Amino acid sequence: MTTSVSEPAGFAERYRVIQSRDRRFDGQFVTAVRSTRIYCRPSCPARTPKEENVTFYATSAAAHEAGYRACKRCLPEAAPGSPLWDVRQDVAARAMRLIADGVVDREGVPGLARRLGYSSRHLTRLLTAELGAGPLALARAQRAHTARALLVGTDLPSADVAFSSGFSSIRQFTETIGEVFGMPPRDLRARRSHTSGVEAAAGEIDLALPVRGPIDTVGLFGWMRAHAIPGVEEGGDRSFARVARLPGGPAWFEVRLADDGRLRLRARLSALADLGTLIARVRRLFDLDADPLAIDEALARHPELAPAVAAIPGVRVPGAVDAHEMLLRAMIGQQISVASARTMQGRLTAELGEPTAIGPRPLALFPTPAVIAGHGLEVLRGPAARMRAIVEAAAALADGRLELGAGDDGAEQRERLLAMRGIGPWTADYVRMRVLGDPDVLLPGDVAARAGAAALGLPSDPAGFTAWSERSAPWRSYAMAHYWYAAPVTQSWRAPAETAAAVAASPTRRRASGMRADVVLTPSPDSVTESENPA
């Protein structure tokens, strides 16, 4: 797939970016200055360094390896993540997604290499050549990023910060923070602002989530609310909460739009070491590392889509917290309405889910594939062939015959899914969109999307819809979001939420105008029918 995210290619283009202090490129590369041995985000307000003193690195880990430390003024570790790891589907991008998920911390470099199908030595060579740092250095940078967020955003004791960030010892934590930020953890914590602090309840972590704006919060929260499984997830106009399984045990989290215009994450964890994994999965669930300006600019070039893009800037494509759960939910939702799918998923959870009291209210974890494989036929209702297909897929996930995760190669994942009985192109591609964050997925069999395309004046028959949508590549997933939001089924919940957002937006923008957060409160997209049209 063509990489079309706004990524400065050469030295001269990147230097112009840092001269203009364009915040859109924060997180996409860092600027290292040889005279000061400091690296910065592109929008750093400090005086632009001389060209002869500048080196650009794709990752902060590469700058660390070259002997630079993070700027204390612009805090490059606080920037949103790079959108390239979703746009690109190569080994480096797949590795970065898995490293963010904590695979190196849990399984080491051999585990990461095994998931990607390479030897540890060859994978290290690949990543060093492509990103300027090997998997250990990249994981170390990820830990430093999480630790910085906890030090400046919470009152957790330093020991808890160390282990929550994935460090194996307090000494390793202290040394890494000192090397990366040029100061000990206590000094980094002392630099935080207390003006916008949030008091978290006992046992909770409350953090701001960096976002590259604008962001369509109406659509994101509306989508989550419309698809929420009763007893597992809770959705509102400005918040979404759920419980999920993480490597260390159950976790509860809530993402909410705060009064200052920021998105915030509140969480309760069984194991503090899961925090980095949770943050990575939440960012993928809400598509927070997208480059909305590049996407909107590309889609708005087409007159048919321009009004939709203008009405809903910063559209996002929701991801998934759990790949196995996402596949089973997609299969349950085939050929039925969203409401019917939610009812069946809620019944399945009520009968087979695992109750947990980790959150502020009792909820239940979505059943594991093993439990669905053993007892799903006793609970699921519908055509016998489809119910058997769901149970067979659950059994394949449970015993490892079917592997599914954020580090998959997109084409190989699609091929594996299509080889399963009861999984057609709609399901395979929908899972690829949600699990991998692939930005270039079209679902021509989706009835709601075609209805939205018709509302926008586009061809709505499968062949015509597919042919026209080729011009929106490589952003067809985001075009799909606009089609869904244009569909009548979406308007029923979107319009009231947009009205409420418009009332709240003006004062929110004024309060947030002087802040470093990249969140802009705007309308947003999403809805729909998770139904495969067998036509």
Question: Helical stretch count?
Answer: 24
Mean pLDDT over the residues? 87
Proportion of helical residues = 40-55%
Q: In what order do the strands lie side by side in the largest sheet?
A: 5-10-9-8-7
Low-confidence blocks of residues:
507-535
The radius of gyration over CA amounts to 22 Å
Structural notes for this entry:
Helices cover 49% and strands 10% of the residues. With 535 residues, it is an alpha+beta fold. The strands form four sheets. It has a five-stranded antiparallel beta sheet. A four-stranded mixed beta sheet has the order 3-1-2-4. The protein has a two-stranded parallel sheet with strand order 6-13. A hairpin with a 3-residue loop joins strand 7 (233-235) and strand 8. Helix 11 packs across helix 24. The protein is globular, with a radius of gyration of 22 Å.
Briefly, what is this?
With 535 residues, this protein is α+β, with helices and mostly antiparallel strands. It contains 24 helices and 13 strands. It has helices at 11-20, 60-65, 84-87, 91-100, 103-116, 120-131, 135-153, 158-164, 170-181, 185-190, 217-227, 275-285, 292-300, 306-311, 323-332, 338-352, 369-379, 384-399, 410-418, 425-436, 447-455, 462-469, 476-486, 488-512; strands at 30-33, 38-40, 54-57, 69-70, 205-209, 215-216, 233-235, 239-246, 249-257, 263-269, 354-356, 363-365, 521-522.
